[in-house]
Amino acid sequence: MSAAGGPAAPSRAGWPHQDSPFHDGERQAQERAGVADKIESVGRRVIRTFMPEDHRELFGKLPLLFLGVVDDLGQPWASVASGAPGFVRTPDERTLHVSARLHAADPAAPWLRVGRAIGLLGLEAATRRRNRVNGELAQVDERGLTVRVTQSFGNCPQYIWARQPAQELDAAGPAVAQPLGPHLDAAARALIGAADTFFIATASAAAAAAARGHEANLAPSDGVDVSHRGGKPGFVAVHQGVDGVELCAPDYRGNFLFNTLGNLEQHPRAGLLFVDYHSGDMLSLTGEASVSWDAPELALQPGAQRLLRLRVTRAVRLPGALPWRWSAPTPAPQLAAP
């Protein structure tokens, strides 16, 4: 309440003073990194409850939109929608419409349901611009989906490999799902081992509980996030064991908001998406995630501040699912050879 007894005034980003743009898990990760005191005020400035005009402009130019959702078991999945630029529209600063549907074989597709939390990432690979939107699915039908925006914020261009969209095929391939189970085949391991990029979906504990059918009062800071990770080809290690596969990737210095790691503090599950930019194949993984803040292996990863691990529980390959083909990539300055 304000001193006059009325509701607290919102900040310039739209946050009432009594609310925080971060949930408890995000604050725990920030505290562990020693940045909690300053990041609260930063978050209030850069995380908005609406999309600013430059974010809306970017979404309208994109041929791809990455997304994260949670299934009925609370397991996150990452995927990507595609279309001709303009397939993402923002009729107003709190509404985003996607004129596309995921392939029926996509493991994320069944969980695009009205009322579910969703995370979106708009990434313009050619310029390394990226903006995030988190919100709630307000409408889902044969024409696409509409999102009610609750958070909107930009991310820095670090670790993004620049690519130009070179060709849009008339239609995506058959995308017959190939379930791989927890044991990845040689082709899947090769795709991961050669990747310079992956996308990760995570959820707050409250968002995961709501997806499982439990009552949950979601604050604007709760929800699902999808984020980009980049590195030199081979930066994701694949460890094949008798019980399945564990992936290990370095976590580099970022914006210190700790949206992904904060979600994992509360709900240690994640969905990963790997894209073959030459063939259009997509590899979607989900499993149990953990973060190592002081593992000895960090010494072998120059620049890494933490290690992100995923024990794969399900994997699905979608051959030729992405209708776009891309130019050869240019590494981010942080990843260019000295």
Draw up the topology in text.
Blueprint: H1 24-33, H2 36-46, H3 53-59, E1 64-70, E2 76-82, E3 88-92, E4 95-98, E5 117-124, E6 129-141, E7 144-155, E8 165-168, E9 178-179, H4 186-194, E10 197-203, H5 205-211, E11 224-230, E12 237-241, E13 244-252, H6 259-266, E14 269-275, E15 282-292, E16 304-318, E17 324-326
Antiparallel strand pairs: 1-2, 1-5, 3-4, 4-7, 5-6, 6-7, 8-17, 9-16, 10-11, 10-14, 12-13, 13-16, 14-15, 15-16
Helix pairs in contact: 1-2, 1-6
Order of helices and strands: HHHEEEEEEEEEHEHEEEHEEEE
CATH-defined architecture: Roll
Task: Briefly note the CATH topology name.
Answer: Pnp Oxidase, Chain A
Q: What oligomeric state is this?
A: single chain
* Morphology: globular
The name of the CATH superfamily reads Electron Transport, Fmn-binding Protein, Chain A
Q: What's the total helix number? A: 6
- Helix fraction? 10-25%
Overall residue-averaged pLDDT value: 89
For the secondary structure, the number of strands is 17
* Low-confidence sequence ranges: 1-11
The biggest beta sheet is recorded as: 8 strands, antiparallel
Quickly name the level 1 CATH class.
Mainly Beta
The whole-angstrom Rg is: 19 Å
Distance from first to last alpha carbon: 55 Å
Number of domains: 1
Helix/strand-derived category reads alpha+beta
Strand content: 35-45%
